[in-house]
Amino acid sequence: MSKSQKSSETFETKLQEIGARSVHIGMVDPEGEFRDKLVSAEKAVKLARDGYPFCEVLYFWDIAESTYRDGSFIDRPAKLHADTIRKYPFADDMALCLADFEGEFGRRSPRNVCLAQMDRAADLGFDVHAAFEFEFFVFDETAESMRAKQYRDLTHFAQGNRTYSLQTSALHGDLLAGLEQTMDAMGVKLDAIHTELGPGCFEAPLYHARGIKAADDAFLFRNFARAYFARNGKTVSFMSKLSPKLSGQSGHLHLSLRDRDGNPVFSDPSAPDGLSRAARHFLGGLLRFMPEFLAMCSSTVNAYKRLVPGAWAPTAANWGVQNRTAAVRVVNDQPESTRIEFRVPSADTNPYLALAMMLGAGLAGMRERIEPPAGSAEDFYASRPAPEAVFPRDLHEAAARLRASSKARELFGGDFVDSFAESREVEHAQYQRQVSEWEIRRYLGVV
After folding, report:
1. Roughly how many angstroms between the first and final C-alpha of the chain, as a whole number?
2. Separation of alpha carbons 415 and 423, rounded Å
3. 170: phi > 0 → left, psi -120 to 50 → alpha, else beta; which?
4. For residues 273-287, b (16+ Cβ closer than 10 Å) or e, as one string?
5. Which end of the chain is more exposed for a tag (fewer CB within 10 A), N or C?
6. Sign of CA dihedral 265, 269, 271, 272
7. Exposed / middle / buried, residue 256 (Cβ in 10 Å: 0-12, 13-18, 19+)
8. pLDDT of the residue at 307
9. What class, spelled out in words, does domain 117-443 have in CATH?
10. Quick check: 291 and 390 in contact, CB under 8 A?
11. Whole-number pLDDT of residue 5
12. Distances (CA, A) of 204 to 162, 190, 407
């Protein structure tokens, strides 16, 4: 039996176990959107065996689906990944499965870039365990009502909300429980869910997962949270910064490594701060390359409205043990759960790229034995960072730094770097053409 036949049988068996009569195939979009096609189970099995041609336009249009390259937009080879098959949460007889481009064209894929870093970790003898945590706002609005209001003066859900508030949970427990049940149906486990700062603001830390599943879980969480709230007449936002009056929304990423025997790699109880040499070198790589790789985890114009002084978010590469003002926080409460928390990504981050960036930079630090600067318990929001540690100020600068980075090309491939940098440059160019309400109020009639 050929490899493709075995894969096809595995695919079909998994669908039968779910009882799926049809399958939602989710093409992994560069912006982190689930590009869906619904097909019969029989056709899904055929596509898993024979391949899944998909239009290349996904890599030649922006988030508003405006193409920035001319072309015939041919179909490119893509693959259905049997290991991503899960139950579709809104119907009993449906499954979902992720797909992505493969071959030469697939080199620009964020998911494939992340998988390549997983392979590098495995070559070094490590299993990757990671988990995202997302903050988000919920509005008592539908897509139609937001358009009618021109996205202004929107009505927040749970307007009396307070951080860690029992009252919001008591009042709206059924809605929150429904979100958890939706995720649980897909095997996306929430470690917790609680209220955060601001009206209708919540945080959902995901339970850690091994390998690429951590990023897949994050990808599915955001897409299906939007669908779940829409089905309940509400809108959820994962934007980095909605308003100067509201806190930014983070997408922090926790990561640890384990060896082939399951032992934690980052822990050494006899060392200062309980950190192993491997952990220190991982930190060294992450901190050194963070400023030049920043576009990978902060890929929208809006992300840089959060990465400013006074916004409860880092503006430079620094670290500390249990220091929540740092870009990288070491969590070492217990040796077996010692991990590194990357606090730079916003809630709108592409989870595949954030994880690839963190893992690629950290593993490079381990290979090259890069020593990190001294960690600190100081308030990094109030300190003056070293010039080489300061982040790019906006998406344009971040894209230029990534494009010029020889280390990024070494780790993630020139095809990805050029394609992704171009898409970020296009996004920033669109932003530069706009005139904001702030500019009108500040300058009209004065200058």
Report:
1. 76
2. 12
3. alpha
4. ebbbebbbbbbbbbb
5. C
6. positive
7. buried
8. 96
9. alpha beta
10. yes
11. 61
12. 15, 7, 33
Residue 250, phi then psi, degrees to nearest 5: -95, 160
Please report, for the chain, the start and end positions of each structural domain, with discontinuous segments joined by +. 3-108, 117-443
Strand partners, 336: none
Length in residues, the chain? 447
The answer to whether 255 and 135 are in contact (CB under 8 A) is no
Cα–Cα nearest to 362, from 268, 426, 283: 283
Question: What are the residues whose beta carbons fall under 8 Å from the beta carbon of 90, sequence distance 6 or more?
Answer: 182, 227, 231
Report d(CA 209, CA 132) in Å as an integer: 10
- Compute CA distances 289 → 58, 68, 79, 274, 398, whole Å: 28, 29, 32, 24, 12
CA 255 – CA 342 distance, rounded (Å) = 8
- In this predicted structure, what is the pLDDT of residue 42? 98
- The list of the chain residues with pLDDT below 70 reads 1-6
Backbone angles phi and psi of 210, in degrees to 5:
-90, 135
Distance CA(319)–CA(327), nearest Å, equals 6
Q: Which two tokens stand for residue 253?
A: 């990423």
- Given this model, what pLDDT does residue 312 score? 86
Q: pLDDT digits over 280-289, tens only?
A: 999 999 999 9
What is d(CA 226, CA 178) in angstroms, rounded to the nearest whole number? 13
Confidence (pLDDT) at 134: 98
Looking at CATH, the fold of the domain delimited by 3-108 is given as Ubiquitin-like (UB roll) (3.10.20)
Please identify which residue in the block is written with the tokens 């603001």: 201
